[in-house]
């Protein structure tokens, strides 16, 4: 058995982001409630003035979008074929950008009124009733799923570094029987440490670094595929994807096609955190001398930048990967070893994935979960010192930090929970497809469209109303089919899998 080598320098590299100078908390709700924000450095809602810009918002979106999903797109195109695969990639991009613009316009209610700093607040302002609870269930359920998916992907990347070195030293047929579980545990330990930082709103550069990591490993995957194509390695491709009776059975073709649609949907799943990203954008309502545009305008531009950039990378990565491997495209372009050499470049790409996911897990995905629970508990038990009191402590390397015992316990328990679930269900493509299917329709399509209809007071049975309802219906059908395909894939994987045994 080969020993798994995890380059802990990447862990230290990530930890160095969080120096004492960067330990400032940005929590609008707590600032408003406590009245501790002093001077004129306040926003229109009484909280500390936002500093987000078009660049940081775009970086947040790219960090959320160009993530683990990009690695499965060549496999998705292989299931669907050139026609359906590329059409779905472009269609999802258009739909996501269209509905994101609607959601951005709903950030304030009415149009130039009160801020709604979370997705649930937006739904409460425009729709109310049980839809608020449904929104919370969909949003936080999908965020939980994404933390699990990120844990799976990061562990695969950690192990792939050891595999690449083994294959380089002993040949591509060498036996490498190492479990993913130590890597998952290592990722969980890193997240337990990082989760204790109160929040990351002021660490916008972390998203910029994570976005650079995304570009790096996406570019490496695309470049390696292009190099193989240039050398004459061309896979067997079809307009309609895998061939029934040759590559797959009829039932496998059906279910895997649905699962592939879910994977593509997951690759655009950033609406789940769009409102939280917009809540960080600089406000000009109390600054009459500023010429900066309103938050919704900035957010719309950021969405265009983020989605168009992601789509370009997706099409390149997916199509190059499919052209190179054909129907045999791996489920994960880098870690399933479609490429073996140069091994050092593959190591670097997998390290980039790990660094990106370490940052994205905290910066984009987990923070809304943490803050939702903590805000609820603070409101329910305001007199509890365990929940509300902050303690100043000097920590080696990090300096003076604020420690809250409830935050310490709750966030640690959550990270352990997501890590254990990832260990039980370490099935990359099926998990991605299911998360995409569950999150895409309600958060990306249904709620933005319904709130847009309410905001603009669009009358029933007009052409615009009918068109929007048709969009909702079509996307619902796609999401349901994708969910079914992913569930079938999970069931198939679970039947042949023993929890807490080696995956190899």
From TrEMBL:
<dbReference type="InterPro" id="IPR013057">
    <property type="entry name" value="AA_transpt_TM"/>
</dbReference>
<feature type="transmembrane region" description="Helical">
    <location>
        <begin position="343"/>
        <end position="361"/>
    </location>
</feature>
<feature type="transmembrane region" description="Helical">
    <location>
        <begin position="302"/>
        <end position="323"/>
    </location>
</feature>
<protein>
    <submittedName>
        <fullName>BnaC08g42420D protein</fullName>
    </submittedName>
</protein>
<feature type="transmembrane region" description="Helical">
    <location>
        <begin position="181"/>
        <end position="198"/>
    </location>
</feature>
<dbReference type="GO" id="GO:0015804">
    <property type="term" value="P:neutral amino acid transport"/>
</dbReference>
<feature type="transmembrane region" description="Helical">
    <location>
        <begin position="260"/>
        <end position="282"/>
    </location>
</feature>
<keyword id="KW-0812">Transmembrane</keyword>
<feature type="transmembrane region" description="Helical">
    <location>
        <begin position="57"/>
        <end position="76"/>
    </location>
</feature>
<keyword id="KW-0813">Transport</keyword>
<feature type="transmembrane region" description="Helical">
    <location>
        <begin position="431"/>
        <end position="449"/>
    </location>
</feature>
<dbReference type="GO" id="GO:0016020">
    <property type="term" value="C:membrane"/>
</dbReference>
<feature type="transmembrane region" description="Helical">
    <location>
        <begin position="408"/>
        <end position="425"/>
    </location>
</feature>
<dbReference type="GO" id="GO:0003333">
    <property type="term" value="P:amino acid transmembrane transport"/>
</dbReference>
<dbReference type="GO" id="GO:0015172">
    <property type="term" value="F:acidic amino acid transmembrane transporter activity"/>
</dbReference>
<dbReference type="GO" id="GO:0015175">
    <property type="term" value="F:neutral L-amino acid transmembrane transporter activity"/>
</dbReference>
<keyword id="KW-1133">Transmembrane helix</keyword>
<keyword id="KW-0472">Membrane</keyword>
<dbReference type="GO" id="GO:0015800">
    <property type="term" value="P:acidic amino acid transport"/>
</dbReference>
<feature type="transmembrane region" description="Helical">
    <location>
        <begin position="82"/>
        <end position="99"/>
    </location>
</feature>
<feature type="transmembrane region" description="Helical">
    <location>
        <begin position="205"/>
        <end position="227"/>
    </location>
</feature>
<feature type="domain" description="Amino acid transporter transmembrane">
    <location>
        <begin position="51"/>
        <end position="491"/>
    </location>
</feature>
<feature type="transmembrane region" description="Helical">
    <location>
        <begin position="470"/>
        <end position="494"/>
    </location>
</feature>
<feature type="transmembrane region" description="Helical">
    <location>
        <begin position="140"/>
        <end position="161"/>
    </location>
</feature>
<dbReference type="Pfam" id="PF01490">
    <property type="entry name" value="Aa_trans"/>
</dbReference>
<keyword id="KW-0029">Amino-acid transport</keyword>
């Amino acid at each position: 058995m080969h020993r798994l080598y995890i380059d802990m320098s990447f862990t230290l590299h990530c930890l160095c982001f969080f120096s004492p100078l960067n330990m400032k908390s940005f929590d609008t709700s707590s600032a408003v409630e406590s009245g501790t924000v002093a001077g004129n450095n306040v926003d229109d809602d009484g909280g500390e003035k936002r500093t987000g810009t078009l660049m940081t918002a775009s970086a947040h979106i790219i960090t959320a979008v160009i993530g683990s999903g990009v690695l499965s797109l060549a496999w998705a195109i292989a299931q669907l074929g050139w026609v359906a695969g590329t059409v779905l990639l472009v269609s999802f991009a258009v739909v996501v950008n269209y509905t994101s613009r609607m959601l951005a316009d709903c950030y304030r209610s009415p149009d130039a009124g009160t801020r709604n700093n979370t997705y649930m607040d937006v739904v409460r302002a425009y729709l109310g009733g049980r839809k608020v609870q449904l929104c919370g269930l969909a949003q936080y359920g999908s965020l939980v799923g994404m933390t699990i998916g990120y844990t799976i992907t990061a562990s695969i990347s950690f192990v792939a570094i050891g595999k690449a070195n083994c294959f380089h030293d002993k040949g591509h047929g060498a036996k490498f029987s190492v479990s993913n579980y130590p890597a998952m545990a290592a990722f969980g330990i890193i997240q337990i440490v990082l989760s204790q930082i109160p929040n990351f709103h002021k660490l916008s550069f972390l998203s910029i670094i994570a976005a650079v990591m995304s570009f790096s490993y996406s570019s490496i995957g695309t470049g390696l595929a292009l190099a193989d194509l240039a050398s004459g390695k061309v896979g067997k491709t079809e307009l309609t994807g895998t061939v029934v009776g040759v590559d797959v059975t009829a039932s496998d073709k059906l279910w895997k096609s649905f699962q592939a649609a879910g994977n593509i949907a997951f690759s655009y799943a950033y609406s789940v955190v769009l409102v939280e990203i917009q809540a960080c954008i600089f406000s000009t309502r109390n600054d009459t001398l500023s010429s900066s545009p309103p938050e919704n305008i900035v957010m719309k531009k950021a969405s265009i930048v983020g989605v168009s950039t992601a789509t370009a990378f997706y099409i390149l990565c997916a199509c190059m990967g499919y052209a190179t491997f054909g129907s045999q495209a791996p489920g994960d372009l880098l870690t399933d070893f479609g490429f073996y050499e140069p091994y050092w470049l593959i190591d670097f790409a997998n390290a980039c994935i790990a660094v990106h996911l370490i940052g994205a897990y905290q910066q984009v995905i987990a923070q809304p979960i943490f803050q939702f629970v903590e805000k609820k508990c603070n409101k329910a038990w305001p007199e509890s010192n365990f929940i509300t009191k902050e303690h100043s402590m000097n920590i080696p390397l990090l300096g003076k930090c604020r420690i809250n015992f409830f935050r310490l316990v709750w966030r640690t328990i959550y990270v352990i929970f997501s890590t254990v679930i990832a260990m039980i269900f370490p099935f990359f493509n099926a998990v991605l497809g299911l998360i995409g299917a569950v999150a895409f329709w309600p958060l990306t399509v249904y709620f933005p469209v319904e709130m847009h209809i309410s905001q603009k007071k669009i009358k029933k049975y007009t052409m615009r109303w009918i068109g929007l309802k048709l969009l909702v219906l079509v996307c619902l059908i796609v999401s349901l089919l994708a969910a079914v395909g992913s569930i079938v894939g999970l069931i198939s994987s679970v039947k042949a899998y023993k929890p807490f045994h080696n995956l190899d």
